[in-house]
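2024-03-11 09:14:02 DEBUG pipeline.ingest accepted 1 chain
2024-03-11 09:14:02 DEBUG pipeline.ingest length=150
2024-03-11 09:14:03 DEBUG pipeline.predict start
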Amino acid sequence: MNINRPRWLAGMPYGVFLSLCCAMPVHAQSSDNAAHPGGSLGSATGETIFRSICQGCHMPDARGAKGAGTYPALAGNPRLVSPQYMAAVILNGRRDMPAFASGVVVEDRFLDDARLTDAQIADVINYIRMHFGNQYGDRISASDVAALHR
């Protein structure tokens, strides 16, 4: 079998190449709750919540993605001017975005154990609104989020 290999691989046996590939560290995007016992986010900060949940769809740079679905950018998104809008979406979900409010039960939910407190929702909103090129100085509080519950 004639395999076209890059010059740096020319003298390397195929088995050695496979061994090297398997030994190389893999850097995968982390967007799971594995670091939090039992899927509980406990006292996680806004940044931790973003990195554990949000970046899985909105990407680590918050620029969003298109592919199997459409995941809007959080970087430079004009809708972020309203922290109440963000809270309503996080609490209740929207289109393919699941609801994260405590007590919301949705069948076939892919993040079933990822419930967020009002304080955590406020923290992740405040984090996103002050990072990724966003510079919204006003903050939302846990009591502001609580006032939005249905």
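2024-03-11 09:14:41 DEBUG pipeline.report Residues 3 and 74 are 44 Å apart (CA to CA).
2024-03-11 09:14:41 DEBUG pipeline.predict end
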